[in-house]
Amino acid sequence: MWIILGLLVVAYYLFAIIRIHQKVFDRAYFGTHIMMPLEEHQRIQPDLCIGSKDNPQDPFGWFFRAKNSPPGPNPTLVYFHGNRARIEEIAHRLSHACEMGFNIALPEYPGFGIAGFPTKERIVKKMLSFDRTLRKMPEVDQTKIVYMGRSLGGGVACATAAQSKPCALIAESTFTSIFDIVKKNLIPRFLLFTTDFDNTHFFKSTSIPCYILHGETDKTSPLWMAQKNHSLCKNSSLSSFDLDHAEMIRSPVMWEKVQQILADLFPNATVARRHNEKNA
């Protein structure tokens, strides 16, 4: 009987680990699931593709050059998407930053429509490689790279920023840790070695400005998680909105806040002047 009980416990944990991995990296498993249908005007193409989709060793992503800005290095916003998206589905939402004078970089995760299998370690390794490639580009001002991550992308942004040191980070709908989300399933933390993005470590130790944006009715990553991340970070601000997890990315109010953050970060840049003139 004890053998049967032990086998049942092992089977439960194996099933739970697989299901958690599927939920964390949703789009890698369910490739036909589209976060939201795209209209024709939302299907945009990048100015450049960085790396290779087919080589698991190479980073891959899209790059959009800043518009209406002087030639030469410009500030760059690196956007890390959530677990139910791919870069081609969210690129149109970043067009406002291009108009403000920012380059936009959209790195893709292994398994999300490109070669590779997603784990925390592999994703962070790819993102660091992407960051190094980005910093060598003549269009990019290395001192003005801002990370923005949504949901899972917030975890990716924090884990990458801990090593790459962007000048600022925007965390949208970002959790404290994967363990905090799944611990109700009675899973020991050491079994989450492929998925446990723990953002609390980053927020405790970082000195870069962090801007935390969160929905007040978020049930996926409850508001208390944003409040905890904010309380741990010595250089952060918290802005909450009357929105749920899915509504945040579609909200003009949230994106207006992002534009204001970018303008405040670089008050003497073209990006800030254009935004402030628009809102004068």
Question: What attributes does this structure have?
Answer:
280 residues, alpha/beta, eight-stranded mixed beta sheet
Describe this structure in words.
This protein is an alpha/beta fold. It is built from 12 helices and 8 strands. It has helices spanning 2-24, 26-29, 87-90, 95-99, 120-135, 152-164, 178-182, 199-205, 223-232, 245-248, 252-265, 270-278; strands spanning 48-51, 60-64, 74-80, 103-107, 140-150, 168-172, 210-215, 236-241. An 8-stranded mixed beta sheet has the order 1-2-4-3-5-6-7-8, sandwiched between helices. Helix 5 (120-135) crosses helix 6 (152-164), helix 8 packs parallel to helix 9 and helix 11 (252-265) crosses helix 12. The protein is globular and about 75 Å long. The mean pLDDT is 86.
Summarize the structure.
The chain is of the alpha/beta class. It is built from twelve helices and eight strands.
Query: What is the count of β-strands?
Result: 8
Work out the helicity level.
Answer: 40-55%
Estimated share of beta-strand residues: 15-25%
Poorly predicted parts:
none
The whole-angstrom Rg is: 19 Å
Task: Spell the H/E element sequence.
Answer: HHEEEHHEHEHEHHEHEHHH
Biggest pleated-sheet summary: 8 strands, mixed
Question: How is the topology of this model organized?
Answer:
Elements: H1 2-24, H2 26-29, E1 48-51, E2 60-64, E3 74-80, H3 87-90, H4 95-99, E4 103-107, H5 120-135, E5 140-150, H6 152-164, E6 168-172, H7 178-182, H8 199-205, E7 210-215, H9 223-232, E8 236-241, H10 245-248, H11 252-265, H12 270-278
Parallel strand pairs: 3-4, 3-5, 5-6, 6-7, 7-8
Antiparallel strand pairs: 1-2, 2-4
Helix pairs in contact: 5-6, 8-9, 11-12
